[in-house]
Design goal:
The protein is of the alpha/beta class. It is 35% helix and 15% strand. It has a 6-stranded mixed sheet with strand order 4-1-5-6-7-8, with helices on both faces. Strands 11-12-13-14 form a 4-stranded parallel sheet.
Length: 361
Amino acid sequence: MIKTISTPIQLIYAGGTFGSYGRPLAPLSAEVFLPTLQQLLADPNNAVNLLPIAWLNNTLIKDSSQLTPSDFVHFYKLLLSAYEQGSRRFVLITGTDTLSYLGAFLAEAFAGSDICVVVTGSMRPLLDSEILHSYTIDAQSDAWSNLKDALKLAAAGESGVRIGFGGESWPAQTVQKIHSHDFMAFTGHSRAAYPANSYIKTLPDTRRQHWLDDQQDIIDDIQARAEQACVHALYCLPNATDVLNSQLRALLSQPPCGIILLGFGAGNVPYSADLAEALQLAYEKGHMVICASQCPFGGVSDNYAAGSWQYDYQIIAGGRLTIPAIYARLLWLLLRYDSPARRRQRWLNNVNQTGTRIKKR
């Protein structure tokens, strides 16, 4: 039987700066760090001891820059298993390098459920490395405040996957890292469409079980496909067009994959007949090519001839989706569906964050 919202918040530690310590900084082992964090959370002076918290055992603790599609599936399976056992609220602590990518992936994977996941991390370690005789919270770090905020968000139990960082929170698929050192390292917005609007506030037990049954039916395929799944990025630079053309053609012999084409401005891409031919060929071979903007805000449009030509060659507009969100959606489609046609159909059936999508003219 599915438990109620009174069940504890399941806390997952996955590594990153949050758990680093010493001189020079290095991650503490889970055997050392987790008991220390448990003691700090239980301390009445730390103001979070009244929240019901449990620990979800996680065997994958690594630097987030080393995460792979198979690792993303690991966290999906970990959360799915706990959700199936009745847990609904989770806080996942991970490194900031791929925090937005992992959050967006989980948002795609759990769309249609009533799970509540808050992903957080920190720019400075939780523990003060100036105090080496005991493990003490670093008062100058953002780690403790980020964790407290994440736990409060999870306690509220709002369905969906959110990222909490620097005193703010956003739907996971709107978030991107904008600063490599500052505590306000991430930003996002609240005007998100799919998958944020596909979460259910409260699922009846029967519908939840149907959702879980659907996931269990495909979990083995998802794990197997993760071993081969790949999303590439092609970055437009002021080069001759044959550079971009050769980069794209080098991918055409691979199994169907995801390709993010990072255009200038609103998605402008330098035209050549050879590149247009390569884009059409990529589609015919089953690759999904999504156009995104190099700009952190605004997304793409077909207002300029310099960008609109590509949509005549089966390119899909990324809309206002961030690069991490485009990566996450491409990866989930590669894992979830067994044919290029089904992946493409699924993407095009989802209205992007602007409420519109660019269609082939």
